Amino acid sequence: MSQFFQIHPENPQPRLIKQAAQVIREGGVIAYPTDCGYSLGCHIGDKAALEKIRMIRRLDDKHNFTLVCKDLSEISTYARFDNTLYRLLKHHTPGPYTFIFNATSEVPRRLMHPKRKTIGIRVPDNKIVQDLLAELGEPIMSASLILPGETDPMMDPYDIRDTLQHQLDLVIDGGFCGMQPTTVVALDSDDIQVVRIGAGDPAPFA
């Protein structure tokens, strides 16, 4: 049975944020709000938790997982990009985008696309996530909470609890947090490519 924390979306309770961070550190899998629906998250280095997310989502080894980062300085530890891309990213983070980069050696191999050695990275515009990342001091390994056979992320934390309470360690209720998935932008080559149009405006990357 998963724990269920009701955390204020604008003024997150520090005590609950600390407890949520500890669940992640101890190998738990959580459902948490972002600016584009709810996501599944775990510790960046935890193989067993990663496999649990694969099982919930029914993902194969070709799926690009996402590192949810606090800011650009954290992104630079895990992704390769030049000054031109830095300026572009600065204007669009935090926000409803997932960026696909060439990964640095800091990214665990099991999180990368096995052939292209890329990693998805995003900085959500969500106070709960920002506080959780600050408490953790490192990214959250993440995947959108899209159940098998569905196309949109889950939006209702009570539905998440009812559906996945025996598979998750914690569900964070952060209220309603958007209906659309992120816009996905590939930045792993010289040509910027919009892979999926979602909540983020694709025009700056077209």
UniProtKB/TrEMBL annotation:
UniProt KW Protein transport keyword: no
SUPFAM superfamilies: YrdC/RibB
Source species, domain of life: Bacteria
Enzyme class: transferase
GO molecular-function terms, A-Z: L-threonylcarbamoyladenylate synthase
Domain YrdC-like residue range list: 14-200
Keyword Transferase part of the UniProt annotation: yes
EC number: 2.7.7.87
Keywords: Nucleotidyltransferase, Transferase
Protein name from the UniProt record: L-threonylcarbamoyladenylate synthase
Source lineage: Bacteria, Pseudomonadati, Pseudomonadota, Gammaproteobacteria, Lysobacterales
